[in-house]
Structure formats: C-alpha cells, structure tokens
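Notebook, student rotation project (T.W.).
Task set for the rotation: take a protein with a known small-molecule partner, predict the structure of the complex, and write up what can be learned from the model alone. Partner molecule chosen: pyridoxal-5'-phosphate. Sequence and SMILES entered below by T.W., checked by me.
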Amino acid sequence: MIPIARPQMGEEEKQLVWSALSSGMLAQGARVRELEERFAAFIGVPHAVATSSGTTALHLALLAAGVGPGDEVITVPFTFIASANSILYTGARPVFVDVEEPTFNMDPSLIEAAITPRTRAIMPVSLYGQPADLSAISAIAERRGLALIEDAAQSHGAAIGERRSGTWGAGCFSFYPTKNMTTGEGGMVTTSDAELADRVRLTREHGMKVRYHHDIIGYNFRMTDIHASIGLAQLDKLPGYNRRRREIAARYDAELRGVITPRVPAGVTHVYHQYTIRVRQRDAFVERLRELGVGTGIYYPIPVHRQKPFIALGYGEQSYPVTELLTEQVVSIPVHPSLSDDEVSEVIGAVNQVAAELGSLEPAIAT
Ligand SMILES: Cc1ncc(COP(=O)(O)O)c(C=O)c1O
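Predicted structure of the complex:
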C-alpha cells in the first residue's frame, strides 16, 4: 500500500536529538531559540516564537492580538477543527464565511458582509499548502482595523510572488508529523510585529519575564529542545521536500484524467501539503483505490459548523454551500517527498483507472 503520509527521519534528526538528550538540557532552551531564529529567516520575518503545537500557536496569536470574550473572529468552516477551536478557547466566537471552489480557501468577497462591531480579527486558512488570498484579505483587515491571524499550519514555504505564507499579520504553523516539516509535535508564530511577538512569548510561559514574577495569567505552551532538535534537521530539508512535492504535483496535474485537480492562481507557490482532487462517488472511489494499493485521506469529511460541539453551540442550521459540496467530493492522494517515480506512476494509473470506471467529474464552474 502506498500510504497517504510517510514522515522522514534521518541520521541528522537522530544525532541532534541524541545530543540534546546527552546534554541534559531537555526543556525550552538554546535549540528552541536556534529554531526560532532560523525559521524566522526562512519565512522572511524578524520574529518567530515556538510553541507546543499549531493549535497553541493559534491560541497564543489570538490572545496576543487582544481577542477575548464577546469578540468575533471571521474564519472558514472548511478546515481542521483547531482553527475554530482556538477562537473558542479565547472566549470569542467564530463567524464562518464560505470558501472559493477552485482554491478551497476563504472567499474574500464574503468578508465585508460578515464584519460586525464585535469583529476583532480575520483568520484565513492556507489549506493544503496553498496560501489564502492574503493580499486581498489583509487589505480588508487594514481598512477595517482588524487583526490578521493566518492559519499557516499546512503552508511552510508557500508564497504569493516572493512573499511567504506567515508574513501577513501573524502566521501560525504546525509541526505535526505529517506536515511538510515536523518536530513530532510543535508549532510556531511568525510576525513582523515585535510587540505581538513579545505578548506571545509572555503568554507561552505563565506570563513570566523575570523568573517567578508573573505579569499576566499565561500557559505552559512551550516547545522542548528535544522537539526543536528534530525541527532543526527538518528545516534544512524543507526546501528539498517542497521541491519534490511540487514535482510530483506537476506530474499529477499533467497526467490525471477524469477528476478535478487543484487550481493554483498565477504567481502562487503551492507546497502541496496535500494534493487534493475532487471525484464522483467518493466512497467507492476510495475503496477502489485501496484495492489497487493506494492510500488516501479525506480532509475534511464534515464541515466545522456541522461538528457536534458546533451544533451544540447553535451553528448547525447555518449553511455554507461550497464547503458542504467540497466535503462530499475531496480526496487527497499521496504526494509526500519520499514517493519514488514508480510509485507516482502507480498512483496516476490507479486514479485514472478508477475515474474511468466510476465516471469523470468536470468542474461545474470555469476554473
Ligand atoms: C489547518 C490546521 N490548523 C491547525 C492545526 C493544528 O495544528 P496541531 O495539530 O499542531 O495542533 C492543523 C494541524 O493538524 C491544521 O491542519
């Protein structure tokens, strides 16, 4: 079976982790600082603050932007639940706007109508490794005096022109094992705003700048030096990993038939955390691919507003037609950098065969 993800751990990761273990310095220390500095340089911002996960990165960035009880944050329902949960953790309420069909990302034309006097921030998600329309969204945020928190959990190294995901407002990355780079568990907030970075740091460690002097109520959302050691080795490999993901995606774009393939606007660098196609008869499609030895993933089968906790909060009756359509059609196929050329050919052969068996899906709109 060709799996949907295959995290790569080499000698470099093992040696760095071993040296961290041997040093006896296990908690947040020099390795975390080094990862912060090098990740900031890679993204192209002056500040990066490492966290225990992508979820805690989002939570801290929202708190640092001043989001709290009674506020609203505009985000999308076509995402992993952590985007919306992080808003709830602050006491604020997520307000959903639908996504655009061709890119799977936040539709900027729907934002203005969702803004109320309570709106404090906008949280676009750069889904599957493709940046949301951050130029348009940040222009709205600036005009309306709102914070911009990008959920960049899946978009390490993605860019619009020369500008990388994570450089608009605050970028929140995840280093979960299946992501384009990993630390095991971990996350990072990136920003050009020195004050925001300071607030994230303070809240990450129990509001403590001077040892055992606490200025605010904070959390323990720190990364360990063990996790940062994995990240340092992975960051060196990230550009090569992303190149390989894009190479595989280019073959899929050119050779897949009878399914809708991702659309990438001109000038955008997609880093293919997932290569997500849209198919007819998805359950049968997935089952046939499994029989042919190809693993798949469904990201995501249920929109956030239809998840049980959100139904309990009164979101269940809301309707986001594009999201609801996409959650029925999307399938991600293997695109991880360790795939051999033969495995890529096998995936293409299998997808094309199943699409021919089950009938092709054409874009309903011009793309
Ligand atoms: C879009 C999105 N947001 C947030 C997260 C949360 O990241 P983590 O799992 O590191 O907490 C993830 C990752 O799983 C994600 O894919």
